[in-house]
Amino acid sequence: xxxxxxxxxxxLILALSAGLFSSIISGYxxxxxxxxxxxxxxxxxxxxxxxxIRIILFSGLLLVVQSILALAKGVYRRKxxxxxxxxxxxxxxxxxxxxxxxxxxxxxxSHMTNDLNTVDMDFIDSIFELSLSLxxxxxxxxxxxxxxxxxLLVIIGVTVLTGLLSNAMARPVKTMFSERSALYEKYTEYxxxxxxxxxxxxxxxxxxxxxxxxxxxxxxLQDKSYKIEKTSTYIFAAQNFTINLTVLGVLGVxxxxxxxxxxxxxxxxxxxxxxxxxxxxxxxxxxxxPKIVSAKGLFKILDRSLENAEExxxxxxxxxFTQSITLDGVSYAYGENRVLEGVNLTLEKGKKYLIVGxxxxxxxxxxxxxxxxxxxxEGTIWVDGLDLRRITKESYFQxxxxxxxxxxxxxxxxxxxxxxxRTIGEEDLQSAIAEAGLQDFxxxxxxxxxxxxxxxxxxxSGGEKSRIAIARALLNQSxxxxxxxxxxxxxxxxxxxxxxxxxxxxxxxxxxxxxIIIPExxxxxxxxxxxxxxxxxxxxx
Length: 541
Ligand SMILES: Nc1ncnc2c1ncn2[C@@H]1O[C@H](COP(=O)(O)OP(=O)(O)OP(=O)(O)O)[C@@H](O)[C@H]1O
What we know:
The protein is α/β, with parallel strands linked by helices. The protein folds into 2 domains: 2-306, ABC transporter transmembrane region fold; 324-538, Rossmann fold (3-Layer(aba) Sandwich). It is 63% helix and 12% strand. It has 16 helices and 12 strands. The site of adenosine-5'-triphosphate has 11 residues, from strand 2 and helix 9. Adenosine-5'-triphosphate is lined by residues 334, 337, 339, 357, 359-365. It is a multi-pass membrane protein.
């Protein structure tokens, strides 16, 4: 993820160059001011006016350069943040389906909101601030060094000392920041769970328990923020104290040098105006380094959440499914729980398979392997002679269609929910609607296909959702249709008719996991796959 920072490199270079230029101009202005002050002590103040005009001109130039800096920095931040978010989303959609499902959605939401905002504030901003103050430091180093090497050494000695002191003082806050980040992640996950469980909480009167739990988690988070704020305030006060002591020390040394004739009065002003720049990086380091380091740590966390544990080289394209799928010694286990062992099976193009077996027998696991959600730990699935591991997801997902138990509806028109924004002719759309038994439903809707489906299908029934999913799959015109309890929320006649239609499509290979066996359609299946006791037995076909 952190490579994104180099994407808008020209803008970054422009901003940093403007920063360097602005430090040089500021340094030059402070030299002019020194000269003006010293000239004012001379009889007749020769050249006083010219210096004043020069200060005004360079101040104008400084205004322009700082405006360029602000603009370039703003555009760089905006572009980089946008790129970060887009890259994160791109990589989320590059995750293996099963590995994505294993994580809580709240984690991704928390990364895209809390963590990416923290990266913006703590990484981009801190890097800028630190770079700019380093430039100002270098310019002031040259200026004070040119004036008096001894004063410079004293100042550096004192600032390093106070800088180290500030760093040591700020250490506890750094630990607290990472503890708070972990608490935030858990808090977001918890909120997500509570809101998802809204119905179950209401009907089981669990609100009291939820409230106590919620209060406890909120209190922990608030306590941590309060501690951070309190400790930061103490540290800030202590840092101010050391800064004041340092200023006093530097003032003392400068005055001493002025009294002994080694420095002019203007020289004292020059030292005091540049001295703050010398302190900048040392003191900022205590605040900014922990932020930069923890933001870098966040990148590692973000990258880790986006990695796929199973990464296969996908170098083969499956243009179409034309022959067969063969499972050759396929085994799969969830940890210690071996669900399938040494399964050998051939599924032929155009044939229809009904998949049955006891609950927990491994039917969904078999489907997930065939859907390429994950790969077998042993053995190979061959699709038209190609190892499924090596077939690209893009080409394979063109060939298969899925109707799963939970159907997602977009907050969009019924038409878009059916076509999924693909270009589909009206005739094909109407025929898929009819085959999926949706004709009556669509006709009764006041706005027909333009009716908006709200909030994941809140305004339609479970059976209507299933039929929409079936129509989507038919519109896909893929060659393999995988159904997982697709008919369970439909009435008998509707289920019979839709299943019958699907089973009559000659070239379509159907794999249907179902507890409901419809007698009128039973004989249309070419094979009955029984999944139980880690094996798959083909009973017919
Ligand atoms: N993600 C998972 N992590 C760990 N174990 C799992 C996971 N998914 C399924 N299992 C376990 O694997 C076994 C087979 O589950 P699977 O869902 O494949 O069975 P099924 O035949 O589809 O069951 P059902 O008919 O109840 O849907 C079960 O013991 C189940 O608890």
